[in-house]
Amino acid sequence: MTTINPLDDAPLSRFHKKLALFSSGGPFLDGYVLSIIGVAMVQFADQWSLSSVEQGLVGASSLIGILLGAYAGGWLTDKFGREILFTIDLVAIIVFSVAQFFVQDVVWLIILRLLIGMAVGADYPIATSLLTEFTPRKYRGPFLGAFVAMWFVGAAAAYVVGEFLARTGHEDAWRWMLASAAVPATLIVLARVGTPESPRWLANKGKIDEANEVMRKVYGPTVSIADLPREDGTVSVKDLLRSGYGKRMAFITLFWTCSIVPLFAVYAFAPAILGALKLEGDAAHFGSAVITILFLVGCVVALLLVNRMGRRPLLIHSFLWSGLALLILGLFPEAPSGIIMALFAIYAVVIGGSQILQWVYPNELFPTEIRGSAVGMASSLSRIGAAVGTFLVPLSLSGIGIGPTMLIAAAITLLGAVLSQIMAPETRGMALTESAALSTTTRTTLPTA
């Protein structure tokens, strides 16, 4: 039976809305920095005479950085708290983005892109843990899922800025493109200043007075840490790889990988893929813009369904129907352009369910002590496949062709449907202590000061 408490069932306040907006700055920057490089590379790849391998390394370096930074950020936020790291990681993005303006060779560009990726990756477990631990259960799924929608908003902004700067015709326009990420990052840092620490984290560290102060400030003078349910037992990072939490980590990592590998491949090289499917010139660029919008539409639709439909059914259907769309593309790469765009549209919209659940599931299935580490580890492990996929797409297109490439993407996506059918739990409507617990034993409250 679902219990009621002042945190999980609190009314949605202005504080919650602001926190959700400021927390989503990380994925906005992720979408921005990963997309702006594609626009900039059109110019500097010719200037520097980059090979296909060098272009692949530049494109994949940020993803490799996210792989490294996500786990480090998760471990740090569980150890030192959410508040202090909530702004430090974005300051790093500002510094490294500006440094790109002055880079003189591809090696240093790859290094800076790697460092930017590390900072972006670190923000995910920090921001999602903080948002999860403040947000009422009714809004937790949509708020966390909105992170993915903000990724595509950031990507769209990058394309607009990149196109505007490219039209100036300046030979160093690409430098301004890469450095431009510092502008939104600065605005987000300023907005995040003053965000309070998570009372759940403070309570788990024994800082009861500080936790009570935050509780009264956010939830009202009558609410204290005594109203916060205790999570079962004491867990550590080692529990991510064993017992029931090990199984949960395996599920999250597998479904996340199956979702992100085809999407990054399709999204990062959409013009090349559409060109291989006989959509060239303005048609390919228009198609890429339409696909970007449809990815965002799919996330919005999924946000509306995540509470109504439930996490498990949404995940299964998302993988199934998007995988079938890619399968048909792979089997009939010579189909008329209208059918090709229709199939891409179906994939872009339907895959939104698996995308938003990448941030919902890991935050709901792990307790406060290891929540950041769980999000970080899952994000890191999934980025291995994303980085490899992004690096191999241009080689696959030139080596085995568009049909087999799409069939591989379809196989990975449909594997996600099978794994979700076997492993996906349902956490809709649960309090954090309920969804994160391995047992259903009665929970007691945290001690007061």
UniProtKB/TrEMBL annotation:
The chain crosses the membrane at residues 21-45, 57-77, 84-103, 109-131, 143-161, 173-191, 250-274, 286-307, 314-332, 338-361, 373-393, 399-420. InterPro entries: MFS_dom (IPR020846), MFS_sugar_transport-like (IPR005828), MFS_trans_sf (IPR036259), Sugar_transporter_CS (IPR005829). Its main location: membrane. PROSITE patterns: MFS, SUGAR_TRANSPORT_2. One of its GO terms (cellular component) is plasma membrane. It is found in: Cell membrane. Signal peptide: none annotated. The keyword Transcription regulation does not apply. One of its GO terms (molecular function) is transmembrane transporter activity. Keywords: Membrane, Transmembrane, Transmembrane helix, Transport. It is a multi-pass membrane protein. The keyword Ion transport does not apply. This is Major facilitator superfamily (MFS_1) transporter.
